[in-house]
Amino acid sequence: MKKLFLMMVMAFAVIAVQAQTENKGAVIDFNEKSKDFGDITQGDKVEHTFVFTNSGDTPLVISNVAVSCGCTAPNWPKEPIAPGSTGELKVVFNSAGKMGRQNSVVRIYSNASEPIEKVSLISNVLPKGK
Fold first, then answer.
1. pTM for this predicted structure
2. Strand partners, 93
3. Pairing of strands 62-67, 100-110
4. Where would one find the signal peptide in this protein (predicted)?
5. By the 8 A CB rule, do 119 and 106 touch?
């Protein structure tokens, strides 16, 4: 009787652990977290597309994307990203009125296991030549 009880407890433990590891929800994995443009001239607009994959087991929904200043404009998928599928986050940085080292941070809010992810555009804005 003790052996049967012990086997049942072990079976329930294995099932519980397996159930926890199988459901990881949505997981957003970016191919890269930053893009460095190096030196650019004041007034230049630079853009980059960050590619990401939903490596989770439920659809990924991006609810909002916030930027650190009005000089940066994001465009992201509004529809859910299925498990195993990829999506693109396009970000444009306008250097008008900026000088020196710039690090434009973009925060991505989603239903992923890590609900806030960050990517950034980096540049060094040089004055326009006369």
1. 0.80
2. 46, 72
3. antiparallel
4. 1-19
5. yes
Give me the half-sphere count of Cα atoms (radius 13 Å) on the Cβ side of residue 120.
Answer: 11
Which tens digits make up the pLDDT trace of 76-112? 999 999 999 999 999 999 999 999 999 999 999 999 9
Three-class SS of residue 17?
helix
Which residue ranges form the domains of the chain, and what is each CATH number? 25-126 (2.60.40.10)
Question: Confidence band (pLDDT; 50, 70, 90) for 24?
Answer: confident
- Alpha-helical (H) ranges within 1-130 are 2-22
Structure tokens at 52: 């990401």
Angle at 24 between CA 22 and CA 30, to 5 degrees: 130
Q: 31 has which bridge partners?
A: none
